[in-house]
User: Fold these one by one.
Assistant:
Number 1:
Amino acid sequence: MSDSTRVRRPRRPTLRSAIEAAEKAGKKVKSATVENGKVTLVFANGETTTDDWDMHLKELDCGKS
């Protein structure tokens, strides 16, 4: 199979990288789940996020470019 005919899967952040990025940003993670490829984090202060962690990882220089 040549490179041009390969189907590229969309990259998804790992649970571990999302938690590490949140803690590096100073957020304490209370719980985390992965559902349908989306990472949902619940923080100690009650906030919840389902943001696209690719953006956050790129800002923190933790993810792949």
Note: The CA atoms of residues 11 and 54 lie 9 Å apart.
Number 2:
Amino acid sequence: MSAVAIQVLGEKEVAIRLNRAMVAASRGDTLERALVGGAMLPVKAAKDICPKFTGNLARSIHIGGHVRNALPEGASNIGGNVNGPGFAQIQAGTNLEYAPDVEYGTSAHVILPKTKKALHWGGDGGPVLAKVNHPGTAAQPFMRPAFDG
């Protein structure tokens, strides 16, 4: 068996560059960019699997502070991200008022008119009721499955 000798040239330069890379990686903005990059696939998956009645829910899902297109009516940026030395935090999701009802479902509940004496829908001749006993809705999870992936 023959012996192999290896000589490392530039050991000091390699150590300096590795140290610089570790310092850069521990900066909050670098960590935030990494988290945003990591969240892009689950955000896309959530948009793909969420129920689409009007499409507003899918269009409202985004990474906080990173809104590329106009958000639908009723949605706004969910907030900026936070970072500092050695840490970063991002937010991904939607702040549409009804999004939790879609994700988690609702139990049976009574719907009462807010500003009128009765509820009316369905155009002329549609039903007019003082209250509606809603049976609730089944959960249609889209955020958790997307991030559990």
Note: Residues 11-106+138-148 form one domain.
Number 3:
Amino acid sequence: MARLTDEERLALLANNPPTVVVDWDGTCVPSEWPGRPMKWLPGAPEAIRAFLDAGLDVRIHSTRLHKYEGDYTTLNQSREDDYRYIRRMLDHAGLYDVDVIFDDSKPGAIAYVDDKAIRFTGDNWPEIQAQILTPKHDEERKLFEGVGGVTDFIRTNIARPGDIKPTNPKDAVGSSKLPIHLWPETATIMGTMGLLEGMLKYGRSNWREAGVRASIYVDALRRHIGAWFEGEDNAPDSGLPHLAHALACLAILVDAEAAGQLYDDRQYAGGGYRDLVEECTPHVERLKKKYADKTPKHWTIKDTEAA
């Protein structure tokens, strides 16, 4: 095979720029897995921008997904959530051209940036061996001494390949753990804002000490939902979204009941509510059929905005 000319090598580099692979946790952001820290480590985004400006291809390579335990559905959701988290951080920093990789393979690169990496210089295997097998701080030293050394610690605490739980798609059916990933993080953010205002006014988790009356929070919940449905996005007094207050009301009702601090003053149980719902429901279908030939305009908030 003929050797490439200088011109051919330059053309090859132009179409396939050299790649720098960068680890995420502990390298770009603080190592807080499984948390998703929203702050960069000093200098990380600036360095990545400099790589891009120099014509390098930069890829974030994370093994976050492989640290999770759970069924197939949970793992896939974790992959999506982690990707969106890293992608959002990159985009907010203006690093739109950086790819994010989640897999076990080692991408080809001219350099790897990783907080756990040890550089091999050709003749430093003894130093590498000593660095890996020597405890790095007091807590590790105590752990190692308690089990007879680092080798025994690894044998005792690191799972063998046969110990790893399978992630078969059928596991999703048989999983008995709470699928907490189903609750949207957007709802958590909204509810947190409502609870924050309450904390600043009345103190954190005050309802667990003082208790709450169910009817008070049901009234507040319905006022906020009603105002939102009537087209008012934010509460005039707090400036926060009505939905944030509504979620906070629901959270307090649930938590107060769980803590035994909910004064239950719901309606006297007359027994007719469910019967009335079942009695009225057939009229919905009857009325739809009766007026099936009608095509009136159905007014919504979009018509208000258009006006």
Note: Residues 158-166 have pLDDT under 50 and may be disordered.
Number 4:
Amino acid sequence: MRALALVLLATNCLGACLPISEAPNKLGSTVCITGKVVTVQRSPSGAAWFLNFCEDHTRCAFSAVVFTRDLRDVGDIRMLAGRTVEVHGALRQYKGVPEIVIRDARQLKGEAAKLPPLPKEFDVEKKGRYRAGQTKTKHSTSSTDVEKR
């Protein structure tokens, strides 16, 4: 927690946020990057959620990632699509794309500063598809199936 506070303090002292196009020039730095979130997308494995700042995220100069385990500390990031946000943190490269890992809601500023918490029925362990206490099976038994047996 202290490290996050130091990151945020250092970022605030640096001044204005940079546009996403400047991200590749600041790798290894603690920065603030600003841009409009085009889409919020969950990874195929469900382990992470990505804030995409370009229509084609594979050609974008910057991405922000929230790991599923951190969603409760960040909030409902699905609400960020279409909003301009400021992302504060350490800028690193992952698979050729500069990114900031968001672990806490305090790393988001601008329109994203007041994200709502995750809905109670959102289960981060089940990738957001299930409600607590309810299960779905591939083949459900209907009342007509029971009568036929």
Note: The helical segments are 2-14, 71-74, 143-148.
